[in-house]
Amino acid sequence: MRINPMQDFNDTIFALSSGSLPAGLGVVRISGSVALAVTRVLAGSLPEPRQAALKTIRTRNGLVIDRGLVLIFPGPASFTGEDSAEIHVHGGKAVVATLLEELAGFKGCRLAEHGEFSRRALENGKMDLVEVEGLADLIAAETEMQRRLAVEHTAGGLSKLYEDWADRLTRARALIEAELDFADEDDVPGSVSDLVWADMAELQSELSGHLAGADFGEIIRDGLKVVIAGPPNAGKSSLMNALARREVAIVTEIAGTTRDVLHIDLDIEGYAARLYDTAGLRDTEEVIEREGIKRALKTAAEADIILSLAEIGTAAQTDFPGFGGKVFRIGTKSDIHPADANNYDLCISSDTGVGLAELHQLLVNDLQTRSAAFSLALPSRLRHRMLLMESLDALTQAVSSVSAGLDIRAEFLRRAAHSLGRITGRVDVEDLLDVIFSEFCIGK
Known about the structure:
Elements: E1 12-16, E2 23-31, H1 35-43, E3 53-58, E4 64-73, E5 84-91, H2 93-104, E6 109-111, H3 116-123, H4 129-140, H5 144-154, H6 157-181, H7 193-211, H8 214-222, E7 224-229, H9 236-244, E8 262-268, E9 271-277, H10 287-301, E10 305-311, E11 326-332, E12 346-347, H11 356-371, H12 382-400, H13 406-424, H14 430-440
Parallel strand pairs: 1-6, 7-9, 7-10, 10-11, 11-12
Antiparallel strand pairs: 1-2, 2-5, 3-4, 4-5, 8-9
Helix pairs in contact: 4-5, 6-7, 6-13, 6-14, 7-12, 12-13
């Protein structure tokens, strides 16, 4: 979020923090240098920090706005790191509007912009970028696994891992710099090879294994992408409607009814899943249908799983251009055809519900298999993945460039640490000097 240049980061900001109105409760948050003074004007004497007190909230002219709870959080022990306050009033539109209007009348106070409380927490060192992103994901979480992943990020679990790796890189660089520049000092090790490169090779392996979990992290956050594909009239739209338990897609006897890609969101044992219904795959000269098939194949290429449907008695497609994931062959219309376990992974009937529970379990099993090797300290955004790849690439070059000079290999380590630091937003070039001076007594 970028602050409007016409506004001052030093302003005291306020906003409704409790969601849309009307509601049973309206929580107005205030943060900044005059937050406590403003709250004192509105509510009279202030309670002890972090203790709620029932107060009459008044305008500066003495008009009663409401009676509610007041809490104060003197900085730096607050969410933003600044002096902060919360005023809890009844969640009526008029009540909250009057309170916000009164706050806007104080000099140096203004309405907060989107995400500005979190940005101030970041600026004041109360949170890093990963924790801020985790907080956003926690607010948006719709499934249990999304909640768990967001909590892990918000609590700093992922940040701690990256900071530990960055510390190891910093120490390795410090040892190298010490050998390059202070080799004549008795308290500097004579050779860093055994001390540094074995640890860097181990770190390379750890980073590579962590990056392998990025796909699953993105699945938890964004949802397992499941595409229903197959020829016209194979029962794709019927399956979509059966799983959604409502009429999402139009179902007719006419082949090629589905022209565009439709999707629904499902909760599968706490995991988010996005299910796509696509146009029937066949050779056709009809322009609109051909465009639908083109979109279907593009969606399939980006899937995590493809449910390849075919009416029992016909072959289910197993190869899709650009897709290298798992394809499940699903035989449909088992209410009018005998089940065939040899040619299909599962036989179902969307009309009678036969096989739908087994299909649900098949997706659950796939998710559990994907999750078995990973904790929830996982990268979950494309930004995380790209920076981790940059860091791993630089680290790999540092470890493998055995014939290069120490200065070149140290530069690769610097790049690896810089990319890790960009993930959390904490890139401090002074860390290297701190290690050298404290551990090797260079300035003696």
